[in-house]
Amino acid sequence: MEASDPVNSKLSRRRFIKGVIASGAAATSTGLWYSANGQTRPAGAVERMIRINVNGQLRNVDVAPQETLASTLRYKLGLTGTKLGCNRGECGACTVLVDDIPTYACSVLTHSMKSKSIETVEGLEAPNGDLHPVQQAFVEELSPQCGYCTPGQIMAAVGLLRTNSNPTREEARQGLAGNLCRCGSYDSYLDGVMRAAQIG
Amino acid sequence: MAYMHIGKDFVPPDVPGKVTGKIKYAEDYTREGMVYARLLTSPLPHARVVNIDATEALAMEGVFGILTADDVYPDGESNSTGLKILTNQPTILGEPILALAAIDEKTAETAIGKISVTFERLPFVLDPLDSLAEGGSDAYDGGNTFVFREGFKSEKWTQDQVASFRAGNEPTAEPQQTVAYGDLEAAFGESAYIYESTFTTAGYPHQSMEPRSAMAYWEDGKLYLHGTSQSLTGLANDMAGIVGVPKEDFVFINVATGGGFGQRARANSIPSMAIPAKLSQKINRPVMMRITREEEFTIGGARQGFQGWVKVGFKADGTMAGCDLYIVSDNGGKGGGADAYSAADCISVLYQTDAVRFRGTSIGSNTGHRGAQRGPGQNQIAPIISPILDKAADELGIDRLELRKLNAAQTGDVGGPRRIPFTSAYMPEALTMAADRFNWADRQSRRRQRNGSKVIGLGIGQGYHNAGRSGMDGIVMMGVDGRLRIHNGVGNLGTYSYASTSRAAAEALKMPWESCDVINGRTDNNLPITSPQDGSNSTFTNTRTMWGAAQDMLAKMKEIAATDLGGEAADYDVSDERVHQIADATVGMTYAQVAQRAMELGGKYTGEAELPEELHEFTAISVSRLAGSGFMGVFHDSNHEGNPPGFTVTCTEIELDTETGKYEILDMISIGECGTVLHPQGLKNQLVGGAVWGIGLSGYERHLYDPQNGLPASTGYWQSKVPTYLDTPSKIQTGWVDLPDPENPVGVRGIGEPAMGAVSAALTAAISDALDGHIFNAAPITADMIINHVAGVDSEAVPLAQNNFRG
Ligand code: FES
Ligand code: FES
C-alpha cells in the first residue's frame, strides 16, 4: 500500500471544515458545538447574569454571549425535556414556545430572550398534575415511539392549537412539518393533534 | 381465544414521562464532579496515526486527561473489521482517534485544538466496484474484504469485468459466497417470461434522533454506564466484555433510547460507549460524552448499499420459477452486514420460488460502517423485485394481486435456501385483506389515468422478516403484597415491547395490569437475559420467556395451595388474584398469602434451589441476587421449531407529476401478518413507522460523499433526506390478520422490519406503474431520475454508483 505525505491534524481539520462547506453540508464547526456550555468564565469574556421568563417564572441565569436557549434550558436550568437532536436547526426536537411561537431553541441565543416568554414541555402540566390536552391526547393515541422528538412535537402542536384551535388534518400536518420523527410516528402524532383539538 | 391482556391497548408505563419530558435519556443525567469528554476524529477517510503530541493540551488548566487507542488496546488493535472504541488506523472520516476530558466542553474543544496528530495518508475508495477493479484502492489496511478465519484479502476483478457489470451485464467474476437450491436452469427453461437487469440500492445512515451520548462513573469498583441502546441485557452482557469489567460489576442504565433501528442493538455496534467508561476509570471522575449529529453520522452506522444483478423467470401461470441473484454489497469502512444473503432468502420466502441461486461478494469502502438496519437485505430487495412482478403480471396477462396470491407463503410451506418450515404463515389472508380494504379491484380503472402532467400509479408490495428467537430466560417475582414484579430485560427503543411482552406473564396469572410492575431500565434491577432487540424478534421471543416464568410461578402456587389446603396441584386454578380449588372456589389463598407461604418455604419457591440448569450466566447473576427476597418464577426457553415469519402487505395510490418528478401519496394501507395481535397501538405504530422508512428507502435516503476528498456530505437529516411529515401521507391506514401462531403461547410474532419492506415495494411499484411500467432498478428513485426518464435524457451518473449522486 502506498503511503503518502504525513498530514498534520490541525491543518487537515481546517481543510475538513472548508471541504464540508464546499460540499454543501452544514457549515458548523464542531469546535463550537456545545461551547455554550462553558462552566468556567474564560478570562476577559463578556458574561452576565440575565433574567428570563421560563414557564411563567423569572429565572436568573449566567449566560455566555453565544449561548443558545437550548443550552441554557438543559444545562443551566435543568429543563432536560427540551431535546437536542441535531443542534443545527434541522429536526425540531428542541422546539419551545417563545411568545406562543414554536421556536427551535438550538437556534436562538438566550440573550435575545430577555423580554420574551418561554414555554417548555415541563410547563404544560397543570399544578394539580393534570396533563395538557395535547399531552393527554398523545398518551391516548400512543403517539410517541422512542419519545425523543415528542417534547418538540408537543410544543409545535400546542403552538398550532393556540392559533388554530380546530385544524384540519392537513393543517396539522403543515403545522408540525418542522418536526422530524425518525421513528416515523407522524401518523400517530397527527392522530394525537386531532384528538387534542377535540378534547382541548 | 378470549384474553385478558393480549390484543388490548394499555398505557405503557414510560409514556407519561415521554409526554411530560420527565423520562431521562443518557444525556439528561448528571453526576457530582462530572467532567466532559470531546473526541478528536479522523480528518481523513483512510489513514494511520503516526504520532500524537498532547503535551500542550494536557498542560492546560481544566484538562484531566486523554484516552487513546493505545490505552484501550494495550496489546495493540486487533487486525480485523468491526468498530473499535478508538483507533490508530481510521478507515472512515470522522472515526474517533482519541478522547479528552476537561472541566467543560469548551475547554475540551480548545484543548483538542492543541493536540497535534500526525497522520500517514492512505488511499481511499468510496465505491466498492472501484475497489474491485484491478488497480483500485482498498478500504482497509490489507485488503478490501475480510474473510472469516482467513483475515483481510484484496479481491479484484478485471477492469473489463467491472465495466461489463456497470454496463448492465451479469457479473462473470467468481463470487465469495454461493448458496442455491432447486434446478435453476430447468426453472428458466420452463419460464414464459424472464426479466434480467442490474440494479442498485443506496446505503444511508441510521440517524436515530438521539445521538449516542453516554455518561459513566465508577463507584465501589462497579461501573455505572448511562447509555443508549435498543437492548438492555442483550447489550449489557457483551458491553461488559468490551469495557473489560466482570458482568457482576457492570450496571448498564438505559431507561429510554431515542430511536434504534438495528445499529444500537448490540454492544459491538456501539463500542463508543466504552469511551466515557474507560476515561472515567483513568481520571477517576464521572465523564459525560455528548455526541454531535456529525459524530452520530459517522459512528451511528448505515444500511449496506447493493450493486446487483437479478434474473427472474415466471411460468405462464404466473408462478415464480427461478431467481438468480448476484450482489456486491458495500461493507463500508468497518466491514459488517450480511444483507445480501437475506435478500435472496426473502425472495425465496415471499414468492415460494422453485429454484434460487444467490451469489455475493462484500467489499469495503471508506464510508460509514454497515450493519443491522431495519430489515437488512429483505427491505433493500423489496423495491427492486416488486416492479419486476408487475412487469411479469402485465406480460403474462395476470392481475398483479393474483400473481402475488399465487406465489404466496402459507402454513406448511418452507422458505429460504435452508428450506425451513414456517411456524405459521397467512400471506394469502394478508393480501386479501389489504386488497379488499383498499378496493384494489375497483381502483384498477384509475390505473395510469392522466390529468395534465399528473398520472395515477397503483402499487402493491409485500414485506418479510423472520420474527422470533428462543434460548432466553424469564423471571417473575411476587412480594407479600401480592403484586407481580415482571423482570424484563428488553430494551426500551420505542416499540413498547418491554411492556407488551410483560403482559404475557400477567395473562398467564390472570393478573390485573394494575397489580403488576414492570422491572426494567437498569441491569441492577436484576433482569434476565434476552436476545438483542433487533430482527423483529422481541415479541415472539420474550412473550415465550415471560409466559414461561409465569407458568413456573403458577405451578408453584398450585403446589403450595395443595400442600396447605389439600388435594393435588391439578385440582387448583387461579382467578381474581387467588389460587383456589376448581371444584370449590371458596377454598383457596390470595396471591399475597401464597407469596407469604413461598417466603416461609424458601428453596425453589424463592429461587434458592432447583433452578433451570440452562439459565444464562447473566440471568444466573440476577437470580442469585433476587434469591430469598420473594416468591420467584423462573424459566429458560430452550428452543422452538420452525421459522416464525413477520409478513406485511401494502397497497398504495400515488399521483406523479411528470413535470417535477415528484409524487403525492394519495392513499396507503398496510396490513400486518404477525400472528395474534399483542398490542394494537404498538402494532399500528410499527406499521406507520415502517411505512415512513419504506418511503425513505424508495424515494429519498442516500449517502453522499465528495469523491475528491472522501468528505461526507449527508451528515445531517436534511442532506440524508430522512422523510418529513410532508413526504409522507397524512393518513396511513393500518390493519392486521390476527391469526395465532402455534409456536408461541399467546400466538404472537414480530413485525418491525417487514413494515418497511411492503411499503417500499408498493411505492416503487406505483412509481413504475405511473410511468407505463418503466423499471428504474434502483432505490431510491429520485425526482431527477423521474424527470430524466420522462425527458428521455440519459443520466450522467456512473451506472451502479454507490455513495454518490444518482439520476
Ligand atoms: S436540535 Fe434544534 S432543530 Fe434539531
Ligand atoms: S418518536 Fe422517535 S424520533 Fe419521534
Strand percentage of chain B: 15-25%
Helix amount of chain A: 25-40%
Low-confidence stretches of chain B: none
How much helicity do the residues of chain B have?
A: 25-40%
Listed once per kind, the bound small molecules are:
FE2/S2 (inorganic) cluster
Number of helices of chain B: 24
Structural class from helices and strands of chain A?
alpha+beta
Could you report the average pLDDT of chain B, rounded to the nearest whole number?
Answer: 97
Please, how many domains of chain B?
4
Q: What's the CATH architecture of the largest domain in chain B?
A: 2-Layer Sandwich
The largest chain-to-chain contact, stated as pair and per-chain residue counts, equals: A-B, 84 and 96 residues
Describe the fold and architecture.
The complex is a heterodimer of chains A (200) and B (807). A five-stranded mixed beta sheet of chain A has the order 3-2-6-4-5, with helices on both faces. By secondary structure, chain A is an alpha+beta fold. Chain A folds into two domains: 83 residues, Beta-grasp domain (Ubiquitin-like (UB roll)), CATH 3.10.20; 67 residues, DNA polymerase, domain 1, CATH 1.10.150. In chain A, helix 3 crosses helix 6. The longest helix of chain A has 14 residues. Helices cover 32% and strands 14% of the residues of chain A. The relative contact order of chain A is 0.12. Chain B has four domains: 92 residues, Aldehyde Oxidoreductase, domain 3, CATH 3.90.1170.50; 147 residues, Aldehyde oxidase/xanthine dehydrogenase, molybdopterin binding domain (Aldehyde Oxidoreductase, domain 4, 2-Layer Sandwich); 227 residues, Aldehyde oxidase/xanthine dehydrogenase, molybdopterin binding domain (Aldehyde Oxidoreductase, domain 4, 2-Layer Sandwich), CATH 3.30.365.10; 168 residues, Aldehyde Oxidoreductase, domain 4 (2-Layer Sandwich). In chain B, the strands form eight sheets. Chain B has a seven-stranded mixed beta sheet with strand order 3-4-1-13-10-11-12, with helices on both faces. In chain B, strands 8-16-15-14-9-31 form a six-stranded mixed beta sheet. By secondary structure, chain B is α+β, with helices and mostly antiparallel strands. The two termini of chain B are 53 Å apart. Chain B is globular. Helices cover 29% and strands 23% of the residues of chain B. Chain B contains 24 helices and 31 strands. The longest helix of chain B has 28 residues. At the A-B interface, strand 1, helix 1, helix 3, helix 4 and helix 5 of A face helix 1, strand 2, helix 4, strand 5 and helix 10 of B. Strand 1 of chain A pairs antiparallel with strand 5 of chain B. The complex binds FE2/S2 (inorganic) cluster (FES) (2 copies). One FE2/S2 (inorganic) cluster binds next to loops of chain A.
